[in-house]
Amino acid sequence: MDKPSYVELVSAPAWMPDSPQEISGIVVGYDTYTHDDYGTTPVVIIRNPETGDLRRIYAIHGMLLDRLNEIKPQIGDKLTVAYTGVKTSRNRTDAKGNPVEYHSYVAYVGDGDTSKYEQSPF
C-alpha cells in the first residue's frame, strides 16, 4: 500500500474501545494530541493491511502509554493493542483506602513472543 497522505493521517478515526476488544495493523505514523486539561497524548496511527483503513490509537490511559513505551513500535511494525477492560488494583488505593480502578491493555509488535510461556518454572 502507498504511504498515507497528510489528510488521511490527520483524519483517521480514533480507536476508543468502551468494552474489551483488540485492534491490529501496520504502524504508518505518529502524532500527538494536546488537551487543555490533560496535556499532550501520543498517538500511533495504524493501517489494517486487509482493508487499508487507518485508525488512530490515543495513549490516553497510563497502562497503554507504559506498554507502548516498553515495546516502542516503529513504522512498518505490526502492532496489536488489546483493551481488556477496567480492572481493580490489588496494590494501589485512593486517599480513602479504596482500591483504585484502571484501564488495562496488552500491546505487542509482531505476532507476540510466547516463548516465556512455554518454559516450565518447575
Overall domain count: 1
The CATH class, by name, is Mainly Beta
Biggest β-sheet description? 6 strands, mixed
Q: Give me the number of helical elements.
A: 2
Give the helix/strand class: mainly beta
Helix-strand string: HEEEEHEE
Cα(first) to Cα(last) distance is 47 Å
- Taken as a percent bin, the fraction of beta residues is over 45%
Shape: globular
In angstroms, what is the radius of gyration?
16 Å
The chain-level mean pLDDT equals 91
User: How do the strands of the widest beta sheet line up side by side?
Assistant: 1-4-3-2-5-6
Word description of this protein:
This protein has helices at 6-11, 62-71; strands spanning 14-15, 21-35, 39-47, 54-58, 78-93, 99-109. It is built from two helices and six strands; from the N terminus they run αββββαββ. The chain has a six-stranded mixed beta sheet. The chain has a single domain, classed as OB fold (Dihydrolipoamide Acetyltransferase, E2P) (Beta Barrel), CATH 2.40.50. A hairpin with a 6-residue loop joins β3 (39-47) and β4.
Mind sketching the topology for me?
Elements: H1 6-11, E1 14-15, E2 21-35, E3 39-47, E4 54-58, H2 62-71, E5 78-93, E6 99-109
Parallel strand pairs: 1-4
Antiparallel strand pairs: 2-3, 2-5, 3-4, 5-6
